Amino acid sequence: MSEDDNNSEEYPTEIHDYLTAFEKSLGSVDEMLKTMMTVSRSELLQKLDPLEQAKLDLVSVYTLNSMFWGEYVVGGKVYLATQGINPKEHPVKQELERIRTYMNKVKEITDKKKASRLDKGAASRFVKNALWEPNAENEHTSKTPAKGKKRQKD
After folding, report:
1. What is the structure's pLDDT at 1?
2. Can you tell me whether residue 138 is helix, strand or coil?
3. Where is this region: Disordered (predicted)?
4. What are the pLDDT digits (tens) for 46-104?
């Protein structure tokens, strides 16, 4: 009997793909955490500007809370319900909403930084150069009648 046959007896076959995907996701998270743990937090923060530091902190706390909530979503909802707790009203869900609010604020700040700023000097030069101004050469040609037209007498 192979290992797959043994595993299929332990849980319903319908959830095998979900469990496989979950296992791959856990492996990805594990690798990412190992990579992040190779550099100390203080070293990492020194390399980032304050906005990037805020993003890192928000993503970190959101991830940890999501993983905690994920446990409740996967199997904990039943446990919470047996304890008389509504999973939708659990404090972790409220914390995730609070963190999302701050993430949106940081996104707004980032978007404002990316937005183009008006260079008043350049805009003024652009408008000035785009407008036609008569000069001596233009005045001379405007006084000369066009060919085929008679000049009116004053």
Report:
1. 43
2. helix
3. 129-154
4. 888 999 999 989 988 888 777 766 655 555 555 566 677 776 777 878 888 999 999 99
81 and 107 in a single domain? The answer is yes
Task: Based on the fold, state whether residues 36 and 85 are members of the same structural domain.
Answer: no
| pLDDT for residue 105 is more than 90 | yes
In this structure, is residue 136 part of a structural domain? no
Is 57 domain-assigned?
yes
Given the structure tokens 């319903």, which residue do they identify?
12
Sequence-distant (6+) residues with CB within 8 A of 58 are: 99, 102, 103, 106
Residue type, 66: S
Residue numbers of the domain that contains 80: 48-111
CA 125 to CA 127: how far, in whole Å? 6
Is 72 in a helix, a strand, or coil? helix
DSSP for residue 127: H
32 or 81, higher pLDDT: 32
Q: How many CB atoms lie within 10 A of CB 68?
A: 15
Do 60 and 103 sit in the same domain of this protein? yes
For residue 72, what are its two tokens? 């409740």
The predicted pLDDT at position 100 comes to 93
